[in-house]
């Protein structure tokens, strides 16, 4: 059986939340160029910002659950790679590692699934990223996440990151085949509440990622290319609703920091914005079109 090296898929997921809702471009012949009012432009940009912030919060959950190692659980349950913010990069967490959270595994016997892993941050734990977490993350692993078909379903018990309370269900599924590495990440009834002012946003999302180049060279990541598809929908306490859909698959190269190609459509309260990551060149130039009017930005 071929070894599925999903650790090389992690950079695409890690960058997705930071980049997905920050840029766009489209041929002028296909859009209306009537300028929205400043208030409408601001509301649309705010919706895309909230989308990106929510994506980032649940990306953090993915990184944590994908980094559960043998030192934590008695066997490697994640990707055998530390992309978590809970310890210094490259440092596995072990019983002797000084930390302010606990990891509980039931059942403890290696190889026995399903396995429930509870990470308890107690009343507060400062991560290496400078964020303060408290409460619990509870994940059920059907198999080790590296195994095709494995599913990790995560819920939260009083879980907070800084001043934000996180709720909902986060699901990661290994969708790899014998010749294609892939993952599906779904958020169901996600909700993030700012405990300082009571403002909230709700979110549902599904993202699929496939490695479309470089599968034949598992020890050489420089030729790896990933394709990302999916969409999301959200609402907030200000009465706004929005939906996003990847129209043309997003393309992420291992050798480039930014997504290099693809388009995303966001509709906020019936008003549309289009995001396009360009023609494949590796650069940080982007444009956000709101009602067809361009707003150039840097990633």
What does this protein look like?
A hairpin with a 7-residue loop joins strand 6 (164-174) and strand 7 (182-194). The N and C termini lie far apart (40 Å). The chain has one domain (6-298). With 299 residues, the protein is mainly β. Strands 1, 2, 3, 4, 5, 6, 7, 8, 9, 10, 11, 12, 13 and 14 form a 14-stranded antiparallel sheet that branches. It has three helices and 14 strands.
Q: How many separate helices?
A: 3
What can be said about the biggest beta sheet?
Answer: 14 strands, antiparallel
In the predicted model, the low-confidence regions spanning at least 5 consecutive residues are: 17-33, 88-97
The radius of gyration computed from the alpha-carbon positions, rounded to a whole number of angstroms, is 20 Å
- SSE ordering: HHHEEEEEEEEEEEEEE
Strand composition percent: 35-45%
Number of distinct beta strands: 14
pLDDT averaged over residues: 80
Shape: globular
Briefly note the structural class of the backbone.
mainly beta
Whole-number total of structural domains: 1
The termini sit apart by 40 Å
